[in-house]
Structure formats: structure tokens, C-alpha cells
Amino acid sequence: MSNFKAIILAAGKGTRMKSEIPKVLHKVCGRSVLSYVLDITKVLRSLTTYVVVGHGSQKVKDAVGNSVTFVQQDQLLGTADAVNRCAPYLKNYQGTILVLCGDTPLLSKDIVAALVKQHHRSKAAATVLTGIIDNPQGYGRIVRDDKGAIKAIREQNDASVDEDKIKEINVGVYGFDSKALFGALKKVKLNPGKKEFYLTDVIELLLAQGKKVGTYTTQDATAAFGVNTREDLAQAQAIIRQRILSKYMLSGVTVIDPLTTFIEAGVVIGQDTTIHPMTVIHTDVRIGKNCSIGPMARLRPGTRVSDGVEIGNFAEVSRTSLGPGVMQKHFSFLGDAVVGQGANIGAGVVTANYDGVNKNKTFIGPQAFIGSDAILVAPNKIGAKAIIGAGSVLPKGKNIPAGTMALGVPARIIKRIGK
Ligand code: UD1
Ligand code: MG
To answer: Which end of the chain is more exposed for a tag (fewer CB within 10 A), N or C?
Structure first.
């Protein structure tokens, strides 16, 4: 698309979250609320994205990084003021400005793309994204004239009894012509009730100047959902979780029980893999084809699982690569490990990867057999086809050559095998 610049409003306090963390940094399925909105501007290739920050601004900057331009709003004087803070950055820009709110993680790129497309086609000064919802409580209402054209956006507090009943709401996403927007923003007056400058007042101002204002109405009411409380956060999480699971199921992954399966954003799962109930898969995990994961397994970030692997109940895997066909069927922990093809990890095996200061690596060679309840105090290297006896403790730094058997506490090499 790349024919617009975007402004994301993210300076608000999020008072109702009752948190020291800025609202937009709270996590939904492993990613910040704001990151979902940022994704949309990235995918639609916004020329520049300005993120208006205020409350907890340094935390937001640190989390987002430097792919965007931050605009500071020290006093939270409302959405019109927030957009107006961007004026100095955009004074030489003539074109479309897309305005989004940083607290709407359910918004989809398709809806925003359709809004921008219509905005360009109609050559309007402003295009407002609207949605029809059963409970419009808290949202700005779309007021239309008898011909159906938009007349104004009325905030809940200022709505008349009739306006209060309107179910068409302002999602909080707009396409604007830059000159028209900043011209009108100068004229926005302080809302006497809330003591804020409302971006929504721009619509009436543009219409009074004889400018064209359009609307694009989405059928997907969830798009408007803004996170304001912890309950909203949980609701957004539930919806995104189902979206993630649907995506996998449609791509050929079996999810035995979607209600008890938690897969965060940023996970890849291959075809014909089965995810059993009560399994948690965190972000930055990749799983190959024909694997069986769970029940009750936890895969943490940095885990790479090759094709045909089985990870069973009460297994936890973190920052670890499992080669093709690895079996890790019951109660075990693998952290910072690299496990070769076809290795067997017995019940109760633990890589003791953390020595209190550093995280150390464990290498387990192809076809190695790690007996039940073995503790591998990292760093270690266990060669191909080596066997570690059940209940052994492999001391820190001890390596076991390929094709040998070691056992005991501490583990000692007792013989070569297979010859
Ligand atoms: C706003 C709209 C409302 C719409 C709703 C959609 C206005 C006046 N109202 O209401 O019509 O239905 O969004 O969710 O615009 N923000 C700043 N600086 C500020 C104030 C807010 O950056 O000074 C940011 C917030 O962080 C938030 C966004 O702007 O991301 C929206 O602000 P919020 O206070 O949540 O507005 P709503 O009352 O939800
Ligand atoms: Mg809001």
C-alpha cells in the first residue's frame, strides 16, 4: 500500500488497568497490545509511523525500538492534542494520514486496508471507520442525517437521549487528508465536560468547511474492541487465542482441545502435528511436521522441534533444538540443549543448565539414550549413540564420547558399546 503515514495514539494512562506498566505494553498471547497495531502499519507499509507517547513513555520506547518515530505528549489533553503533537513532523507532508489507537489489538489489517483504499478512491478529507455493535457503551456514536451521510461523532458524555441509542460507533481509526486534518485541529475547542480536545470534533469542523467526509463500516464488530481493563485484556486474549488456533487447524495441525491449548503469537507448526490438551506453547517456537506435543507440555521461547518429534506429559523445553524423531515422552526439562536425531530422553531427565550465574549448554548426540532420572549438569557433551544410565548424575563439564556407556553418581564411563 505504502501511500500513507500513520499516527498511533498511545500516550494515555490506562488508569483502569491499575498498573505501573503502560496499558499498551500489557501482553496478549505473548505480545504487547501495541505490537498488534504496529503490525498493521508495518504490513500495510506505512511510509512513516509516529507513535504518540506520554505515560510511561520510556518503557514504550524501549519495547517498540527504533522502527518508528516517537512523538511526546507530556500533558494528556485528549486525542486531538495527541494528533496535533505530530504536526511539526508532518508540516511538509501532503497526503493521507492514518490515525489508529494503540489499545485495539483485535483490529485487522484487512479492515484498515479497506478503509485506506476507500479513503483514496473517494478523495474525502476524512474517512471514519465505523462498526455496529449491540452495546455501544463508552464509544463515540456516529450521527447521520436523513440521507444517511455522517454529520458528527458524538461522545457518550455529550450524547442526547436519541444519540445515546445509536449502535453505530466510532472504532477510532481514520484516514485524513493531512492539510485538512491539521487545518481543522487548530479549531478544535476544549470539551468542557472532559477538559480534553477531541479528535472526533474534527469531523463536524470539516463538514462545516464544506469538505467531504466518508465512512467505512466494518461487519466485524470485534475490530473496535479496545483494552481498558484487565477483564478486557483477558477477553482480547481469548479471541486472539482462538484466531491463532483456527489458523493452525486450517493449515493442517490437529488441536485436540482448543479450549485448553495455549499457543502464543509467533509460533510455527508443521502439517500433521498433533497438539494434545493443556499444552502451552510460547512465542518464538518452531515445530516441524508429524510431531506429537503434550498433553501438558510447555514449550518456551527459542525452542526448535524437527519433524517427527514426540514431547509428552510434563515435559518442558526451553531454548533447545530437538533433531528429527527425538523422543521426550515424560516429566523432563531440557534447557539450552541441542539434541541430535533420534535421541531418547528418558522420564525425569533434567538438564541442570543454570549454575546460578550462567546458562550452560548441553549437547546430546544423535541416537543417544539418556536413561530415566539422569541429571546432566551443564555444560556437557554426550556423543552419538552414547548411553547414560538411569539415575546418573553427569557432573559439570564432563563429556561422554560417542558409543560409550556412562552411569553412576557421579557418572563414569564404564564401557564401549556396540562393538
Ligand atoms: C476514543 C474516541 C471514541 C471512540 C473510541 C474508540 C475521542 C474523543 N473519542 O474514545 O469516539 O469510539 O476512542 O476506542 O477520540 N490518547 C493519547 N493522548 C491523550 C488521550 C488519549 O495518546 O491525550 C490515546 C490513548 O492512549 C488511546 C487512544 O488515544 O490509545 C484513545 O483514547 P481513549 O482515552 O481510550 O479514548 P476513548 O474514550 O476510548
Ligand atoms: Mg479507549
So the answer is: C
